Amino acid sequence: MTKAIITADLHGKTAYQAKVTVDALLRRTGAGTYRIRLIHGSHGGTALRDFIQAEYSRHPKVKRLLLSPDGGATELVLREYV
Asked: 64-67 and 35-39 as β-strands: parallel, antiparallel, unpaired?
């Protein structure tokens, strides 16, 4: 994968399914990828959002997390865009 920002829609997934998806994305990211945008939604509950923040806030490839203004997506920042 060489896209600068990769987007994954996690709607309807369990925490386990989301983890499998995000871990696969993190393994396959190339040097050109600097963010992974995870769309989890905010109106049906916050379980996926909370899981993503707990699981990936200390991941070695993730520098920081950004929550979208509406709370429906989280971005994993892998490196700063220059």
From this structure: unpaired
Is there a contact between 61 and 24 (Cβ–Cβ < 8 Å)? no
One digit per residue, the tens of pLDDT, for the chain of length 82 reads: 457 899 999 988 999 999 999 999 999 988 889 999 999 987 766 889 999 999 999 999 999 999 999 889 999 999 886 6
Identify whether the C-beta of residue 76 lies closer than 8 Å to the C-beta of residue 25. Answer: no
How many Å apart are CA 46 and CA 72, to the nearest integer?
Answer: 9
52, 18 Cβ separation under 8 angstroms: yes
Alpha-carbon dihedral 1, 70, 13, 57, rounded to 10 degrees: 60
Please provide the size of the chain in residues. 82
* DSSP single-letter state for residue 48: H
Neighbours of 38 (CB within 10 A): 25
